[in-house]
């Protein structure tokens, strides 16, 4: 059984929806694992949305760990607070010995110390080797370079933002029938909206199917490298076809 640590700021409805979706799959047995704790860089009373997220966590009887980075930053020396903060985070999560930590809307960059100690996975809304940055920056770059494909990937978190060994990914064409008219018209705003719509529809299925694959041994992490079911090194598990099926179901 996969022992999962869940990291989230809990800043919006999507954070709650993702936790609900994963918990549902665990309850059904689709993911052979459990979320042993949820860590947030906010504490109760800091924000309404986070408080709603905390209520959801507690409804599942999952241990909730919190450490306000804002309060910590105020109390610590400016140049050293991030290092000290993650040392305190480690003290909180270490007793749970997670096999895997999921960064699910966690709005802090994780320090090198935590990245090296734990296998921490993150979603980035671009294909492997694609643009870095926010989802907005990624999409505008794809449009600017007239890319053929967009996608999303789950990768191991490293101190280098949006890089790290790719665990799984999905791709979709942005040059097909749905997009052709807007490329022809050079309607960048409509292209932006369409690409975001199709990428967003794949985010939850990608996270869920990746956790499912990891829990079943279809893909694994060994010495911070990604391996297949036979233990061979791979450059990422392509689950585009599975994701496409999930997207079709959701659109019906």
List the helices and strands and how they pair.
Blueprint: E1 2-7, H1 13-28, E2 33-40, H2 48-59, E3 64-66, H3 69-75, H4 81-93, E4 100-103, H5 112-117, E5 120-124, H6 135-144, E6 149-156, E7 166-173, H7 177-185, H8 188-216, E8 219-222, E9 225-228, E10 237-238, H9 240-251
Parallel strand pairs: 1-2, 1-4, 2-3, 4-5, 7-10
Antiparallel strand pairs: 5-6, 6-7, 8-9
Helix pairs in contact: 1-2, 6-8, 7-8, 8-9
Order of helices and strands: EHEHEHHEHEHEEHHEEEH
Q: Write down the overall geometry.
A: globular
**How much of the sequence is in beta strands?**
15-25%
Provide the structure class: alpha/beta
Q: What is the first-to-last residue Cα distance?
A: 33 Å
Total count of helical runs of at least 4 residues: 9
Which strands sit side by side, in order, in the main sheet? 3-2-1-4-5-6-7-10
Largest sheet: 8 strands, mixed
Number of domains: 2
Q: What is the count of β-strands?
A: 10
Please give the share of residues in helix: 40-55%
Radius of gyration: 19 Å
**Poorly predicted tracts of residues:** none
Can you give a write-up of this model?
There is one protein chain. With 252 residues, the chain is an alpha/beta fold. The protein folds into two domains: 1-118, Rossmann fold; 124-252, no CATH class. 45% of the residues lie in helices and 21% in strands. It has nine helices and ten strands. The protein has helices at 13-28, 48-59, 69-75, 81-93, 112-117, 135-144, 177-185, 188-216, 240-251; strands at 2-7, 33-40, 64-66, 100-103, 120-124, 149-156, 166-173, 219-222, 225-228, 237-238. The protein has an eight-stranded mixed β-sheet with strand order 3-2-1-4-5-6-7-10, sandwiched between helices. A two-stranded antiparallel sheet has the order 8-9. α1 links the parallel β1 and β2. α1 (13-28) runs parallel beside α2 (48-59). The radius of gyration is 19 Å and the shape is globular. The model has no long low-confidence stretch (mean pLDDT 92).
